[in-house]
Amino acid sequence: MLEGRLRALGSFYGALPAHDIIATAIGSSVDSCLKRLALGQLVQEARGLDAGPRLVKRLVGTGDLESAGVVETIAEEELRHVQLGVKWFVSECSRDGRDPVKTVPSNCPGERKPRAFAPPFDEARRRKAGLEPEWYLPVAEQMRQHVEDLRKKGISIVFAPGRRLQLVDRYIIIVFGIAIF
To answer: What are 172's strand-pairing partners?
Structure first.
């Protein structure tokens, strides 16, 4: 469905920066089931709960009802994905005697993806999926504080969608649409 819509629009799955985020999360979590669940279902798919309905409204507003329908379907599927992620994250934590809520931050390396933890959050949809605010608001606050600390040091973080640039010698690195310089 998504691939077909992207092809109809002259693109394909994998061509957009957002598609790299999933692959990177997979690569950075090969050593840990908890990290995979945290990054995949509790962060990325939870962002789909937040952004999906807003994107549907924007697409409807532009008259692209076909794309709106695709995004709406995906946004609804994200609900079940997050529910399963919460279930399995809790299960894995229980096996090791860990508190799931306290375990989330150590499995979400947010310093590389500040926007993944930035409001607005669709708290109603997240709660429906079993993801209570105490699971993500502390991580969001840590990320907010991290960004503030960087700014105090004179380091700026700018969201720049669609950019794929890496200029290490000038201390400008743009990965996943985030510019750090």
So the answer is: 167
| 180, containing H or E segment | strand 178-180
Please report the pLDDT score of residue 119 as a whole number. Answer: 83
Residue 177 half-sphere exposure toward CB, CA atoms < 13 A: 14
Question: Is 168 part of any domain?
Answer: no
In the chain, the number of structural domains is 1
User: Does the structure show a pLDDT above 50 at 48?
Assistant: yes
**Dihedral of the CA atoms 175, 176, 180, 181 (nearest 10)?**
50
Residue 12: the pLDDT is 76
Contact in structure between 43 and 10 (CB atoms under 8 Å): no
Q: What is the mean pLDDT of residues 111-123?
A: 73
Contact predicate 81/45, CB 8 Å? yes
Domain span at residue 35 reads 2-153
- pLDDT tens-digit readout, 62-107: 998 998 898 899 899 999 999 999 999 999 999 989 999 988 887 7
Examine residue 179 and state whether it is found in any structural domain, yes or no: no
Which residue in this structure is represented by tokens 């429906």?
128
CA distances from 150 to 12, 169, 176 (A): 36, 19, 18
